[in-house]
Amino acid sequence: MIINPENRNSLSTLARRLCVFFILGCLSFSAMGSNAKDGPATPPTFNVGYRVLDLEYKQDGREKVLAVAVWYPTAAPSKPHNYGGPTEGKVAVDAVPLATSGPYPMLVFSHGYSGSGIGSVFFTEALAARGWIVVAPDHHDKHSAVRIRSGQLGNFDRKGLWQHAQEIVASGPEDRDKYLYRMDEMRSVIDRMIVSEAFRDVIDGSRIAVGGHSLGGYTALGLCGTIKERHDSRIKAVLLFSTGAGGYLFTKDEIAAVRIPSMLLMGERERDQLRGAQTMLQLEEKIYREVSPPKYLLEVKGASHFSFNNRFADNPRTRLLSGTEEQFEVIRRYSIAFLETYVAGKKDSDHVLEQGDALLTRYLSEPAPYVPKQTPASHKTAEPAGGLYRR
User: Fold this and answer.
1) What is the mean pLDDT of residues 100-104?
2) What is the pLDDT of residue 385?
3) Is residue 196 part of a domain?
4) What total of structural domains would you count in the chain?
5) Which CATH number does the domain housing residue 381 bear?
6) What average pLDDT does range 203-214 have in this prediction?
7) pLDDT tens digits for 332-355?
8) Average pLDDT over the chain, rounded to whole?
9) Chain center to CA of 367
10) Residue 2 domain-assigned?
């Protein structure tokens, strides 16, 4: 691209504004579909049920309520469903979970700042169709632009949201206490879901994963060992979408305490965008370098920060920032293969993790180290750590 020198200052200002706004994660979506050439790499196995729950929990001694979106396998027929704006899906609203094929693994997913639990429908719905319970809360952020029940809000404080976004980007590990409420909410979701009347019999408590987009990546990592007193040993893997906050709100030593399988995805277009004094690429590489294997780092060709979310407004600006169907498909394919391999224990999609893709400008992987299994001397063999890490 050729840039007119007269436009450099305006473009630089726009870039700075975008790199702050990119932590929000609430404005992009492309309808779900399949790879036109090969068909979907992760074909659906189940119809998908969908319901919204209000989970009660305590925070700082006060009773609070957290709205969560839940996707799950069901025998009921799925129908077209509008989540808000141009975001469409296909679910059976308030259907009964399918118990005969359970229990199912569970993913709890944390949205970006000011976003919503319905922020990544292109992925959450598809994962549920593969036999997962997927739960995503509406965090009680200081500012919210989207909510599960209403879609995009028409009267949110745009100026206040912008100012707080700048504050978050300028934060470091010493400032993160003000965002710990998100981890408490995520932990409460896990606790409440596994005992909930509707889902306790269909959730496999031994197969739980967490994930998050942007500030949601920080939220997820906070339960995976980075903060000792908030470490949740029930979590078996972590999936991270475009999270600079996961890099600048933790130290290297804290990230090194994460000893479960991890997958990080980022967009090619955000590689050089600044989060504080570091670029997104530097922050993603920091996380990848410090976490223990098995681990993966994927850079999606042509993708931006918004390519990992759906959008709830339909105008030229949001359409310009949205990802393509091909980008959504590659994000789904690798994310689902990762979760099914390392959490669900399925082998039918782990071949996806063995190679890159034309839609990935970068693909780094480090499988788990092989360690000797404690067996009698007459049966000396070696197995991957945990029994699932087959590579």
Assistant:
1) 95
2) 31
3) yes
4) 1
5) 3.40.50.1820
6) 98
7) 999 999 999 999 999 888 899 999
8) 84
9) 21
10) no
Per-residue pLDDT tens for 259-299? Answer: 999 999 999 999 999 998 899 999 999 999 999 999 999 99
State residue 291's pLDDT score: 98
Residue 162 structural domain: 10-387
**CA–CA separation, 150 and 370 (whole Å):** 48
Is 334 inside a domain boundary?
yes
Please report whether residue 331 resides in a domain.
yes
